[in-house]
Design a protein that fits this description.
By secondary structure, the chain is mainly alpha-helical. 39% of the residues lie in helices and 7% in strands.
Length: 195
C-alpha cells in the first residue's frame, strides 16, 4: 500500500467520511497532524509511524497513530496493514473519541491523544481557528468557541445576539436603579432629609 499525505482540510474530510461528528473534525484533524504529520504510511521497516508508543507496544499506526495491537478490531481492522488504511484508521479514531468533543483530562480525546503530546497542547497550533479562552462568567464569544461554531441568523450569531440582549438588560437595570436612586434623593431633599 502506498502511503498518503493528508493536509489539515483533508484530515477533517477523512474524519467526516469515517462517521465522526462534524463539530469534532477540526480538533481531530489537528491531533492527526501532531500524531503523524498527516501521513498514513509508517516509516519503512517499522510497524508504526511512532514506534516509541506510550504503551511500549509494537507501534502506532496511521494518521491518528492508533496503537497496535492494543486497539485491534477498532475501525474494523483485524491486521496492522488494515489499520494503515486511512479510512479504517479514521474509523478507529472515531470509535476511540466516542463522540465526546471535550479535550479535558478524563475524556477520550485527552486520554488517547492529548496527554501524550509533546509539548503539551501541541494540537492547538494546527487548529484553523485557535480556541479563544472562555470569557469570565461563561458568556459565549461571537463566532468560534474552541473548535465549535456558534450558529447565526442572517450574518448575526446567537452568541452575539445573546450578549447584546444581556448587555441591554444590564444597562437598563443600571439606568433604572440610577433613576430610582435619584428620585429617592430628590424626595428626601424636599423633606429636608440628608441624602
Amino acid at each position: 500500500m502506498a502511503g498518503q499525505h493528508f493536509s489539515y482540510p483533508q484530515l477533517e474530510t477523512l474524519w467526516d467520511r469515517a462517521g465522526g461528528p462534524r463539530n469534532m473534525a477540526p480538533v481531530m484533524a489537528a491531533i492527526a497532524e501532531v500524531e503523524s504529520g498527516g501521513d498514513s504510511e509508517p516509516t519503512p521497516g517499522k510497524l508504526g509511524n511512532n514506534p516509541d508508543t506510550a504503551t511500549g507496544l509494537p507501534g502506532a499506526v496511521g494518521p491518528w497513530q492508533i496503537e497496535w495491537p492494543l486497539y485491534q478490531g477498532y475501525g474494523g481492522a483485524s491486521t496492522p496493514e488494515q489499520m494503515l488504511d486511512p479510512l479504517t484508521n479514521a474509523r478507529a479514531a472515531v470509535e476511540l473519541a466516542a463522540g465526546d468533543p471535550s479535550t479535558a483530562p478524563g475524556h477520550p480525546i485527552w486520554d488517547n491523544w492529548i496527554q501524550w503530546e509533546h509539548p503539551a497542547g501541541a494540537y492547538r497550533r494546527f487548529l484553523s481557528h485557535p480556541a479563544a479562552p472562555a470569557p469570565p462568567g461563561g458568556l459565549l464569544l461571537p463566532g468560534k468557541v474552541g473548535p465549535f461554531t456558534v450558529p447565526g441568523i442572517g450574518g448575526l450569531n446567537y452568541a452575539l445576539i445573546g450578549q447584546a440582549a444581556l448587555t441591554a438588560v444590564l444597562v437598563a437595570g443600571g439606568a433604572a436603579a440610577a433613576v430610582i436612586g435619584a428620585a429617592r434623593i430628590a424626595r428626601s431633599t424636599r423633606r429636608g432629609e440628608q441624602p
